[in-house]
């Protein structure tokens, strides 16, 4: 089918397709009583907040020319969703890229991206950012210093295609686990996972693919300072440590604005992400909270201390 005007497969579309395969959902409903075209990206309201606002929104904008999305937060304040309503983008995703409408169990990486090793790097980076884990593990209950990447999806073909790319193109040692049914699964649909547990391969990932989720980036930065990254820490704890507000990655409160801006700048210098600068992210959080409070009586969990931010960001609203 002919592509919608202005839409083509480039590195930003490849990256956004990785976001879609991870935490994106396409909803196309045609005919009566209601026709709708919607694309959502959903993540953890705390750990993925900076990624969704500071990486996903600008990536979607660069890929498809869309403005700021609607933002929804559930009643329990556990997840947040970016919502786009573009017919052209929805049809491009479904009819040109071949991404499924609804459940993604049958999804595969679009051929025009899969056959281009350069584009595959951008897609793979965002699959990890959305539906992957970068963690540090211990041996014999000692320091948590051994890195591991795990990506787990319901789409078996995507996992197999990623594993093939990582092994054949980048020489990584990749292990697969298929048809996993565990307590984290949605319903009874099995999931499929790939794992990379070699430190040299993690280094290759950083060099060849990169990391874009600030939550994962903060783990790497903590490891680089401490020689380990303790488990069960939140992004607030890690940012507090990285900004010098805390000597350990212990339970912490919201980060002062200037400290947050400085820490994001360090991330961008070393990893080139998030896409937005710290002040831009803080402004976006401020505006989002104003809208959520007005419409739903809810707010995002506080990562940045914005109590005195009204005078700074009010003109941007």
3D architecture notes:
The chain contains 12 helices and 10 strands. α1 (11-23) runs parallel beside α5 (117-131) and α8 (214-226) packs across α9 (235-242). The protein has a single domain (11-316), classed as Homing endonucleases (Endonuclease I-creI). The protein has a 4-stranded antiparallel beta sheet with strand order 1-2-4-3. The model has no long low-confidence stretch (mean pLDDT 93). It is globular and about 55 Å long. The chain is of the alpha+beta class and 317 residues long.
Number of helices: 12
Largest sheet: 4 strands, antiparallel
Determine the CATH superfamily. Homing endonucleases
Count of the domains: 1
Radius of gyration, CA atoms, in whole angstroms: 20 Å
State the separation between the terminal residues, measured CA to CA. 40 Å
Lay out the secondary structure.
Blueprint: H1 11-23, E1 24-29, E2 36-44, H2 49-64, E3 70-73, E4 79-84, H3 87-96, H4 111-114, H5 117-131, E5 132-137, E6 146-153, H6 156-168, E7 175-180, E8 191-196, H7 199-208, H8 214-226, H9 235-242, E9 255-256, H10 257-271, H11 278-295, E10 304-305, H12 310-313
Parallel strand pairs: 9-10
Antiparallel strand pairs: 1-2, 2-4, 3-4, 5-6, 6-8, 7-8
Helix pairs in contact: 1-2, 1-5, 8-9
Feature tags:
alpha+beta, about 325 residues, 12 helices, 4-stranded antiparallel β-sheet, Endonuclease I-creI, globular
Task: Characterize this entry briefly.
The chain is of the alpha+beta class. It has helices spanning 11-23, 49-64, 87-96, 111-114, 117-131, 156-168, 199-208, 214-226, 235-242, 257-271, 278-295, 310-313, and strands at 24-29, 36-44, 70-73, 79-84, 132-137, 146-153, 175-180, 191-196, 255-256, 304-305.
């Amino acid at each position: 089918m002919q592509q919608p005007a202005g839409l083509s497969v480039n590195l930003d579309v490849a990256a956004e397709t990785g976001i879609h395969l991870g935490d994106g959902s396409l909803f196309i409903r045609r005919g009566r009583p209601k026709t709708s075209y919607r694309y959502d990206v959903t993540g953890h309201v705390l750990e993925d907040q900076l990624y969704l606002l500071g990486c996903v929104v600008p990536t979607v904008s660069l890929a498809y020319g869309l403005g700021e999305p609607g933002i929804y937060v559930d009643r329990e304040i556990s997840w947040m969703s970016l919502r786009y309503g573009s017919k052209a983008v929805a049809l491009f995703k479904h009819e040109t890229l071949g991404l499924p409408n609804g459940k993604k169990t049958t999804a595969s990486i679009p051929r025009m991206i899969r056959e281009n090793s350069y584009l595959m790097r951008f897609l793979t980076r965002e699959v990890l950012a959305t539906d992957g884990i970068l963690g540090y593990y211990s041996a014999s209950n000692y320091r948590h210093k051994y890195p591991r990447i795990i990506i787990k999806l319901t789409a078996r073909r995507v996992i197999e295609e990623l594993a093939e790319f990582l092994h054949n193109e980048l020489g990584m040692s990749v292990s697969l686990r298929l048809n996993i049914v565990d307590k984290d699964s949605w319903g009874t649909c099995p999931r499929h996972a790939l794992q990379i547990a070699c430190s040299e391969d993690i280094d290759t990932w950083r060099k060849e693919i990169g990391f874009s989720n600030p939550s994962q980036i903060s783990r790497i930065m903590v490891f680089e300072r401490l020689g380990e990254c303790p488990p069960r820490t939140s992004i607030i704890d890690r940012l507090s440590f990285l900004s010098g507000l805390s000597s350990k990655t212990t339970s912490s409160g919201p980060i002062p604005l200037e400290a947050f801006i400085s820490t994001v700048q360090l991330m961008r210098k070393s990893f080139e992400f998030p896409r937005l600068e710290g002040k831009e992210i803080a402004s976006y959080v401020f505006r989002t909270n104003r809208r959520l409070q007005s419409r739903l009586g809810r707010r995002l969990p506080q990562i940045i201390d914005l109590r005195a931010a009204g005078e700074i960001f009010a003109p941007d609203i």
